[in-house]
Amino acid sequence: MAGYEYVSPEQLAGFDKYKYSAVDTNPLSLYIMHPFWNTLVKAFPTWLAPNLITFSGFLLVVFNFLLMAYFDPDFYASAPGHKHVPDWVWIVVGILNFMAYTLDGVDGKQARRTNSSTPLGELFDHGLDSWSCVYFVVTVYSIFGRGPTGVSVFVLYLLLWVVLFSFILSHWEKYNTGILFLPWGYDVSQVTISFVYIVTAIVGVEAWYEPFLFNFLYRDLFTTMIIGCAVFVTLPMSLLNFFRSYKNNTLKHNSVYEAMVPFFSPCLLFILSTAWILWSPSDILELHPRVFYFMVGTAFANITCQLIVCQMSSTRCPTLNWLLVPLFLVVIAVNLGVVSYLESLLLYLLTTGFTLAHIHYGVRVVKQLSSHFQIYPFSLKKPNSDLGMEEKNIGL
Predict the structure, then answer these.
(1) How far is CA 152 from CA 52, 74, 141, in A?
(2) Catalytic residue among 34, 82, 84, 126
(3) Does the reported pTM lie above 0.90?
């Protein structure tokens, strides 16, 4: 298993022909963030590898998740009558969130600046972004949390899925059209939530208890913005881009079945995880919300990464992800009525297994592509660039 190769020879050949194609029409991105990133990237040393920038931004998102897990393990810290998260934590999380967003915007510019753009860099960037979805959403949840003024853990579960489907929608577009249409919601959400973290430190979580307008609470604004952005912005734009490609006869997959294959595994993951919640004898989501979210988000990231590999290599997306097999077995066991403590154990075992499997997948894919393109993933130095001048001169 240690040397298992996830990328097939056909996919490696597809990566050789790959050319990056993306469209960004977001005014915030075009007129504010890109000029800012273009200026900022000049301060980065030219020896700094773009993938290292990407990974650093991802680690900041993970750190925020872990920091909030420590101060708000059960999402009750923002509820009335509970010990609140210290103000300095909100400031740290807000700054680090914006830094992570900035690094995610700078890495590609550093790649072009140092003439080191590779398909691996794009895969690495978007692959980590797919896993960042769960870290980002769950960390944001701590602003409102559970309780009478917050959002229930099941509503947050549904909101997480809205974000996950919004993310995979962009890569479904590219799988079918060959063009990555960057979603508007990403930039707006990152800037807005970074600002909200800082505001929370200044005004306190109690400020979010008050109605925003009439009886419309801030928690309602939070859910409305996420759902509204997905339903009225992300989804319509994705369908429009798809039908434009269909009209121009440029779709890469002509049958409806082949075009919709990337949605099979995410939909099955949603069905299985939701069935677990509804059938749970111990109310597993109420008992371990953070772990359950992480389990779902990690499985989703693995599914999305496989889709990204396929759309970049112009190969067929797998119909089902093998991680769904153990999840299916657990859901069957839950439906048959396992005892409460055993259900919690199954959740932790499944989450651990998913995490290790996804990390193994990521490490092996990076190693395969690094070897194929003869590059170091975290260095601008080429594998053969350390040859001595004498060896180079004699053609070794």
Answers:
(1) 37, 12, 10
(2) 126
(3) yes
